[in-house]
Fold this sequence. Notes:
The chain is α+β, with helices and mostly antiparallel strands. It has helices spanning 2-10, 15-26, 148-172, 178-196, and strands at residues 41-48, 51-55, 60-62, 64-69, 73-77, 90-92, 98-100, 109-117, 120-131, 134-137, 142-143, 209-210, 216-217, 227-228, 233-236. It has three domains: 1-39, no CATH class; 40-132, Immunoglobulins (Immunoglobulin-like, Sandwich); 137-236, no CATH class.
Amino acid sequence: MYFAKKVILLSPFLSHWLHPFFLLLSSRYFWSIPEEEFTCEPPLITRHTHKLWVLEGQRATLKCRAIGDPEPVIHWVSPDDRIIANSSRTSSFSNGTLDILVTVARDDGAYTCIAINAAGEATATVDLKIIPLPHRGVRRRHCYPPSWKRWVLFLLPGSICALIGVCLYIFAETEDNYYYTHSLWHILVASCVVFVLPPREKNREAMGWSRGWSWSWRPRVCGYTLCQSGKDELYAVT
């Protein structure tokens, strides 16, 4: 009896199978039990899924069959070394079948089938490969100005020049100082334009053709582009 308690404490999986065995022995004499009843067969995995390819989002069914005496219990271990329990997305059946109802990319990996009984255990590996679906990605729209430096070093000084020029033109210009104030107004407006204009785009040729990995046509005004939008792309998430 000490040996039986020790085995049960060492392996929680064995207690399910050893408990009926010791109940049977408790009502019989030891010398009246034939030798055949003390013989146990370790688990043997007879067939299992070797490799399964599944499209992302579809159902994946992993199968594992084992024999032994007593009949082994089958558990599944995920690629991250966790025992898989029944949930809203996974179902583990007593016949050794594991169902993943809706597969995702993180389900990809090697699953381990473990068959356990009182005589030992057996393992087998199942490779599940998830084929990722193409996802549509849209590049962000980049508009001028792109950063706070452009605001502080260019747009703010340009706005100040424009404001001073407008105030000078409206409130300070008279017939006596027309030549001076009007010339100063032109200088301020020209300075405003220099500050406010976005920088010329690199790798851009004449007539709006841009050169890089490929040639493409984008409309431009005087060689400047205020907004750019990349085309939609289809790519696979891995």
